[in-house]
Amino acid sequence: QVQLVESGGGLVQAGGSLRLSCAASERAFSGYAIGWFRQAPEKEREFVAASWIGDSIKYADAVKGRFTISRDNAKNTVYLLMNSLKSEDTAVYYCAASLYSMSTQMGDYNYWGQGTQVTVSS
């Protein structure tokens, strides 16, 4: 059982930056794909970014060029650096872990964190 804990959310003005962290309990962390998803009010949860073995990385089109995912396997932590934030980035951000694939689909992830709120004021 992998436990994931997100942190780093908060209130920021449009154009600002935040860095989210996802800390995992599992020592085999380096073997997991880690994805970030977000859910805005009254909207479905959507894929944001994912990281897997080596330099394998995916981004949603909406965040390409603004968000950067990185991981520190020694600390069992994945980061999501969010720059040039927009009001439409306001959502609860979740990290998730998968043993099998670096997917954009929620159903492919086995473990989820509790989420952290990001609010971007315009």
What's this model, at a glance?
The protein has no helices and 11 strands. It is an all-beta fold.
Structural description of this entry:
By secondary structure, the protein is an all-beta fold. The protein is built from no helices and eleven strands. The protein has strands spanning 4-7, 10-13, 18-24, 33-39, 46-51, 57-59, 67-72, 77-82, 91-98, 111-112, 116-121. Strands 2, 4, 5, 6, 9, 10 and 11 form a seven-stranded mixed beta sheet that branches. A four-stranded antiparallel beta sheet has the order 1-3-8-7, with no helix packed on it. Strand 7 and strand 8 form a beta hairpin. It is globular, with a radius of gyration of 13 Å. The protein starts with a strand and ends with a strand.
Q: Catalogue the unreliable spans.
A: none
By DSSP (H or I, 4+ residues per run), the number of helices equals 0
Q: Can you summarize the main beta sheet?
A: 7 strands, mixed
| Chain oligomer state | single chain
| Elements, N to C (H/E) | EEEEEEEEEEE
What structural class do you assign from the helix and strand content? mainly beta
Radius of gyration: 13 Å
How many angstroms does the end-to-end distance come to? Answer: 40 Å
| Strand percentage | over 45%
Mean pLDDT: 93
Report helical residue fraction.
under 10%
Number of strands: 11
